[in-house]
Amino acid sequence: MFDVEITVSLLKLKDYCEKHDFKGWDPYDGLNSKAFRATPFFKWDLARLVWIQSFKRNPFNLRRLSLVPTDYNAKGIGLFLKGYCNLFKYQKASGNIEFGDSVALLAKINYLAELLIWLQSRGYSGACWGYNFDWQARRLFLFPKYTPTVVATTFCASALFEAYEITRNVLYLQIALSSANFIIKDLKRTPYNGGFLLSYSPLEGNNTVINASLLGASLLSICYKYSKNIEYFFMAKEVVRTCCNLQNDDGSWVYGLLKTQSWIDSYHTGYNLDAIASYQKNSDDLSFNSHLTKGYEFYINNFFESDGAPIHFVNRKYPIDIHCPGQLFVTLQKLDKFKEDQVLADKVLNWTIKNMQSEKGYFYYQIKKGISSKISYMRWSNAFMFNALSHYLISNINKDNNEDLV
Questions:
Q1: Which range of residues forms the domain containing residue 346?
Q2: Whole-number mean pLDDT of the chain?
Q3: Each residue's pLDDT tens digit, 173-193
Q4: Of 132, 171, 318, 345, which residue is 20 to 30 A from 180 by alpha carbon distance?
Q5: Cα→Cα distances 253→45, 310, 339, 371, 384, Å
Q6: Domain for residue 39, yes or no?
Q7: What are the pLDDT digits (tens) for 114-132?
Q8: Is the pTM of this model over 0.90?
Q9: CA–CA distance from 283 to each of 135, 195, 226 (Å)?
């Protein structure tokens, strides 16, 4: 049943995203409004914050009215590239061509990889990527559009590594490897308990986010795998150790160390687990396996209900963000837990398709107690679910014929 269900769901999503050439809106792109930028309020931090949040929280899409254009988002393109790499592996292993034959899929992989290279942020020590909109977090800081972040860079560079494994295009490998220089030379380091955390971006602000640090360590471990540069290994290990020391006794992590970042949520927990698993796989260092085990037990036991409905925060179910169910499929595949928790995966898949996918193929942003936000967001919802569903797909084929993901 689920083979048919996921095939139909993923095909509808694939057709929708290809029809729009992977361009779209984003929950945080309010400051791209040509109307707002033409006003003097654009220079006022509080006005910018209110404007961003009014777009993000509103269940009705104000973007056309406010002249916010659709655009490419680098992290979104990275997620699509990862998804097509998975579809290519699925096609090779299964022989099925529902999603395209190997020639068509390879063409799409090269198209997205070249687009991703074009979307790089320029002027830094290595390859890096940011978002296509100005981003402000509360009144603490403003990141201008295309400011590179360690999160976007990790998703994009790791996607290029996966594209290299399929295409053997050395350019993809070289650009992805250079991202290590961005992490080492451009990001700030905040000392903590004998180790350090990585900053979210080269700009001041958001310097103690745990999942961002772990994602940076994960990317360094992939660069170490290909280059054998021991500096990458030692730095990655130091960051992972610092983040594992910040793990709570029950296996959870807060989002970050600022007082305003003390929440514990579903998908950032999944990010942490994926990053630690990636570090261990690429470095052959299993020092943090007990932290990984404890974290996974907390994740799987606290963020999903018996019917497959996801839970966003550890103490609050709503709003159910599309990342909450989607991240499960990635985490199960990364931690090799799909067989162990297949029943849960199937329930979550069924719930998500029934409750969060439009008949047009795209996925909704959030389900709320009141009026839900059913706007189509290309990076946040569609690219994320495209990658997530492709992980579900390759986890259910014969693993003897399936190449490991990078």
A1: 2-25+70-401
A2: 94
A3: 999 999 999 999 999 999 999
A4: 132
A5: 30, 18, 26, 30, 22
A6: no
A7: 999 999 999 999 999 999 9
A8: yes
A9: 34, 19, 10
Residue with tokens 């404007």: 51
* CA–CA dist 246, 261 (Å, integer): 13
- 43 within a domain of the structure (yes/no): no
Backbone angles phi, psi at 310, to 5 degrees: -80, 160
Q: Return the CATH number at 191.
A: 1.50.10.10
Confidence class for position 205, pLDDT limits 50, 70, 90: confident
Q: Is residue 60 part of a domain?
A: no
Going through 284-326 in order, the beta strands assigned E by DSSP cover: 320-321
Q: Give how far Cα 216 sits from Cα of 53, 108, 201, 208, 264, Å.
A: 28, 27, 11, 12, 20
Residue 182 domain-assigned? yes
* Six token digits for residue 257: 């160390």
- The owner of tokens 């961005």 is 182
In the chain, what is the greatest distance between 2 CA atoms, to the nearest angstrom? 61
Name the DSSP class of 122.
P
Nearest one of 21, 34, 29 to 131, comparing CA atoms = 29
DSSP 8-state secondary structure symbol assigned to residue 139: T
pLDDT tens, 342-357?
999 999 999 999 999 9
The stretches of 68-191 forming alpha helices (DSSP H) are: 74-94, 102-118, 150-167, 170-181
Nearest CA to 334 out of 296, 386, 302, 294 is that of 296
Return the structure tokens found at 59: 């269940």
Q: How many domains does the chain have?
A: 1
DSSP 313: B
Taking the CA atoms of residue 41, residue 45, residue 47 and residue 48 in that order, the dihedral angle to the nearest 10 degrees is 90
The Cα-based distances of 106 to 16, 156, 182 in angstroms read 19, 18, 29
CA-CA distance, 338 to 389, in Å (whole number)?
Answer: 13
| Residues making up the chain, counted from first to last | 406
CA gap 276, 36 in Å, rounded: 41
Cα–Cα distance between 392 and 16 in angstroms, integer? 19
pLDDT of residue 403: 44
Contact 141, 157 (CB under 8 A): no
